[in-house]
Structure formats: structure tokens, C-alpha cells
Amino acid sequence: AEVDEFELCGPLDGAAPGWRVARREKGKVTLPLWNFCPARLACVFCRKNDDCPIKYGEKKTNEKWNLTVHYYCLLMSSGIWQRGKEEEGVYGFLIEDIRKEVTRASKLKCCICKKTGASIGCVTPRCKRSYHFPCGLQRECIFQFTGNFASFCWNHRPVQIITSNNYRDSLPCTICLEFIEPIPTYSILRSPCCKNAWFHRDCLQVQAINAGVFFFRCTICNNSDIFQKEMLRMGIHIPEKDASWELEENAYQELLQHYEHCDVRRCRCKEGRDYNVPDSKWEIKRCQCCGSRGTHLACSSLQSWEENWECLECRGDFQKAKKHTLPNTNVGITDCLLEESSPKLPRQSPGAQREDLLRQGSKFRRDISTLIIELGFQIKKKAKRLFINKANIWNSALDGFRNQNFNPSYTIEIAYVNENDHFGKEQPGSKQEFLSLLMQQLENSPLFEGSLSKNLSLNSQALKENLYYEAGKMLAISLVHGGPSPGFFSKTLFNCLVYGPESTQPILDDVSDFDVAQIIIRINTAATVADLNSLINEYYNYLELIGCLRLITSLSDKYMLAKDILVYHVIKRVQAPFESFKQGLRTLGVLEKIQTYPEAFCNIFCHKPENLSTKILSDLFTVHTLSDVQALGFWNSYLQAIEDGKSTVTMEDILIFATGCSSIPPAGFKPTPSIECLHMDFPVGNKCNNCLALPITSTYKEFQENMDFAIKNTLRLEKEENSHFIGH
């Protein structure tokens, strides 16, 4: 018979040492003790040998009584209580109580596997279902590891109720990042504090086991109280222990290491690069920004330790220095600062490193095009076609991005359709033109307020329709897929995204509401305490409504009052839209990249691209080898005439005509814009291929007139077509 079919009964009187009795339904039989070694013993409740702490809890054996239990099987059994201290019995459950519970359970049959020993019952009144813990997991029962440790069968288990489901497409699990259907089920859970945060149950359970009660929190907003309460209700076990990474021996030992190596190209120390003598010219000074590169004081001509020194990477001129030719003699200061390309010493754990990136983002000055190209590595070859109505770009994009089959990591293909075309004709479209038009719609949408530098607005209807999330998602997709720079964010909004609202101080220019701005100005310019109190009385209802009433004891209190109003209006008032927008911006890892390299992204989020010039456009377009030489000469003259203001066409008009974009995207154009010369009267722009066909004419005057006429009229017609929907 298999060992699992026997039940241990303890030592047998008179038996040889090392023997035990095992009982079957009929009679008794003695078996050697090695048949019951702890590694092979089954749990007395579920009778399984499995040792899986995440699913069943720790498997523990009391060798004195030859008793093995899974922690969760013991914890969830309906007829047992912890009557002893933690060190008594098994986890504080007395041996005699465990035996009684095993006896009780032996009379109950599992409603799932039909075997006896079902020690767990559904707590719902009138429900008589009993089951083993592993069987309950298999049948998707819920076990609450809190309070009275209640258990619910599959018919009575608690569920998450969502009043309205506006999610039409898949969302990533915020732990493993795999896409899931945002529908609450047993296996899929939603965060109670962030409505766009979804998780696999298994991911949450592993996270909870590793993080423990002190570090288990919402991965989006870091809320712990509301989050843990909901997860306990839904059957996630949160152990009362410290996080696993805190218990690891020497987990942060690398933080105690000091970098001691001279990295300059020509180290002058005869004792070697690792030679370090404090309080001398051979003392190693570390980079003040990253601390991961070093130099001897003498090797970089530093007079004292107090002088600051930055490595080339942190100065942002690494590429320039790399091209510098080193002379063979006469070593100078510039030569000394050229470092050898050695790998940096890893000094920090990922968590600490991320915090440093937020505080010292200026040290990572990487090229924005490189960063976006890196994000673009996620894009797969599998294509998803979006059907876009140019007269209704916004709703077309919403429908496409919300489609359940849309995956932001798929290659995007654009097909333009016309809702008035009853034949359903499709025209191939330019992806970059579509993204450029979409960003224009986003900038002018009611989701943002302000003139040039915009902040998020408070639009209740947009919040209800989850449009702030969609806006963040659109922006992330646009950047990764080669779209244009946003260029309309205020510094305050950008800093909130990077450093958090609590670390951001808004300015008066962030207030787009004229009345609120006047209140702040009047408070700031109050000349006396009496004037200040008079203003508070005048705006009493408003200040009470926004929670900014304060006791005035001196005139200097006006600054704190004005600051409170400013913070409320710009930040606290739009907290819900901000969190939703921020969650959308996490798509394809864009927000994380922004937070890691804030200086690089600040330029494209908060500043419009530089104006185009003749040189920029000339360098941008490549010329086909068989192009007409005279036409190319006319083209260069035409660009110069535009720059000199001798044409009604602008440089941006030409770029829009050829590519559909008014500026060069941060990641550049794909394919590269090109020029060809054809025997035709007027120029033709192929936006799908970013190709501009120039007409071959006999005179420059004819060339200019034909170019002006075609470009101006084409753009005018497109503008009228696009504004048709906006006007309505």
C-alpha cells in the first residue's frame, strides 16, 4: 500500500526501536520509521505531500508526534483555535487540538474530491459545503486570512463590483506587465484606490509574501491601508513579517563600498590607478554627481579636496570627448579628464538607485532620440490597423485604442476612411501624420487648461469617461511610435509627473482662472493685517470651500495663504485627473523613462521644437541620385527665399506637405524624408513614404509659383476638412 493511505498512531508498545504503527480500516500493521521521514509525510488535513509555501503555506512537521501540517490548512480549519503561545505545538495550535480537528474532519467528505478529511467549511449560513484547502483553491474558493479566518465557497465568495466598465481593451497587470482583460474575476483583481490598476491574483500573492505587511501596498499610489483591507477581503494572505529583501543577509552591503579608482585616460600615479593616500595629491576624488568614477587630485590638477569634479558622462560631453585626439606628448588638463571606458561599479540596490535618479536626474544627460528609440524596441512586427476618420481624429483614435484587440506594442498601420463614403473606400495613411494630428487635438482638448504652458483641467465628464487615462495612453503611444514632441506641458505639470505633486510648487502663471488669479494677487499685495482680514472675509465662502481658511496673526501669513490657494487650485483640485493621466502615461514604460531621465524629456514636453531653417530642411531630405540638377538648384533657392520672407509658404508648410508633421519628431522620421524630381507641373507630397516630388520647370519663377500654389491650397483644403468636425 502507498504510504499516504496510512494514518500515524504513535509509538507501538513493545515494538523495536525505530518502528511505528500505521492503521488501516482493518487491523494494524507495523512499518519501519524511515517510511515516515518528514520529507515524505503528508499534511494531516489535506493529505498532500506538496511543499509549496506560496499556495499552501509553510509545511511544518512536529517530529515528536510525527505530525505534518500545511500552515494554511491549519489556519483555515473551521473547528480549531490558537490556544497556545507561538512556540507551543505547531504555530501556537496545541497538538491535542489538532488531533481533535483531524478527528472531526475525518467524518466530513470534501464536496470537490469526495474524500474525507474536509476540515474547512463555507461560513455562509445554510451552506453545508466542506472541502480541503487545496481543493478549495482549485475550485476558486476564497480564504480570508484576517479576523475569524472565514472561508467562502465558489457560490458565496466576495466579488469586486464595478459600477461601469469603460475598458474596451486590455490593460497590463501592474506587477508582471502582461496584458489582461480588465474584468474582475477570481484570477483578476482591481486596486481599490487606483481604478486603472489591475493585477493577477497569483502576482499579488507572490508580492504579498515577499513584501509582508509593512511593504505590501498599491503599486501605483503606494496606499497601504485601503489596499491591504481590500486584498485581505479578496483572499490575499499578507504575512506579518518584514520584507524578504530586508531579511536577506548583507542585502545592501554594496552601498558601503567606496569607489577608489582613477579613471582619467592618463593616470600620473606611478603606484597605479588604485593607489589612494588620504590628505595627499594621490587621494582619489569621486565624481560629485554619480560617485561612480574617480580621479587622483594630481591627475586632474585639483588643488584641494574641496574642489568639485565631475566625470565626463555627468558633464554630458562624453561623445565630444571621445572624438578628441590625444597628443603623444605634453599631457594637459584636457587630456587628464578623458577617462578610460571602464564599467561603473554597481553601488546601489534598484530601489535606492531609483530614488537617486529622481533627486539627481541632471546627471543623466542622454540624447532624447536615443531614449525614445530604446522605448521603440518594444514594438513588435505584428501590425494593427487603425481606421481613422480625418474629420473626427479624436473619436477615431479613442475607438481604435480602446478596441480589445489593440495592443500598444504592435506596429500601427493607418487607413483613412470617410464616413460619408458609402462605398467604404480606404486610403493608406501616414502614421506620423495621424499622431501629429492627434497631439494637436490633445493639446486643444478640454482636458488641459492654459494658453501656452498647460496644466490638467478638472472636467467631470472626462473623468467619468476615463479620458484622462486615455490621454496619457495616447501621449505614451505617440512618443514610442515616432510621434511629435508634445511641447505644451507646464513645468509644474512635468515636475508633478517626475517628482510627485507633494514635491512641486506651482507658480501664479499656472492659474488659468482669472478670478482665482486675482484673489491670489490681492492677497499677496495686502499692505496691512486689516486689509488681509478684509480679503479673507470677502472670500470667506471660497476659502472655506477649498479648505484654505487660516488664522491670521501677522502680515507674513499672506504668503502661506496665497501658497495654499495656489497648491489647491493647480494640484489638489485635479488630483483625480492627474492620477488617471499618470497611469495612462505608464503605457509602454514611458513614465518610468521620463522619471529616470527628466532633463532629456523636459525639453520635448515643456518646449516647442526649434524653428525650421534652410539648413535643417536641406539636411533632413535626402536626394535621389537621378534627380534633375536644375530642379535641385531651384529647390535650394526656394528654401532660401522662404527663410528671407519672400514667400507666403513657411518651412513648416513644406514639412507638413511632405510628411504630415509640422516639426521633426524626437526619434526622427521613418522612413527618412527624400526628394525626387519628376516631369510634372506641380509638386506632390507622399506622406506615407515621406517623399517630396519636385516639378521640373524651365525657370525658377515658374518653380516658385507652382510650389506656392500647390502647397498653400493643399494645406488649406486639409485644414478645412479637419476643422469641419471641430466646428460642430
From TrEMBL:
Q: Where in this chain does the record put each HECT domain?
A: 568-726
Instruction: Check the record and name the Gene3D superfamilies matching this protein.
Output: Hect, E3 ligase catalytic domain, Hect, E3 ligase catalytic domains, Zinc/RING finger domain, C3HC4 (zinc finger)
What is an example of a GO molecular function annotated in this UniProt entry? ubiquitin-protein transferase activity
Q: Which UniProt keywords are present, listed alphabetically? A: Metal-binding, Nucleus, Transferase, Ubl conjugation pathway, Zinc, Zinc-finger
Top-level taxon of origin: Eukaryota
Entry annotation: catalytic residues? C688 (glycyl thioester intermediate)
Keyword Nucleus in record: yes
**Might you report a single GO cellular component term?**
nucleus
Pathway(s) it belongs to: Protein modification; protein ubiquitination
Query: Per the database record, which ranges form the PHD-type domain?
Result: 40-157
SUPFAM superfamilies, per database record = FYVE/PHD zinc finger, Hect, E3 ligase catalytic domain
Localization (cell): Nucleus
**Which named protein is this?**
PHD-type domain-containing protein
